[in-house]
Amino acid sequence: MSKLPLLNAREVAKVLERLGFICKRQEGSHMFFELPDVRTTVIPNHGGEEIDRGLLNKIVKHDLKCSREEFLRAV
What we know:
The protein is α+β, with helices and mostly antiparallel strands. 37% of the residues lie in helices and 27% in strands. It has helices spanning 9-18, 53-63, 68-74; strands at 7-8, 22-27, 30-34, 40-44, 50-51.
């Protein structure tokens, strides 16, 4: 199993949009994404900083409910 890449918020947002998520709103430095089937996730947007692999792994497994391989194909 390969490691998740280090991505910034803009790159993660593009991947989420490829997976069908829609950015519903942004409050401060947090972007809220949603799918019509009620899956949601929040991405921190801190000025070009990369999202930690631990947080990205949590987003992929628990919020997106997809495998790492499926996420990596969308990258």
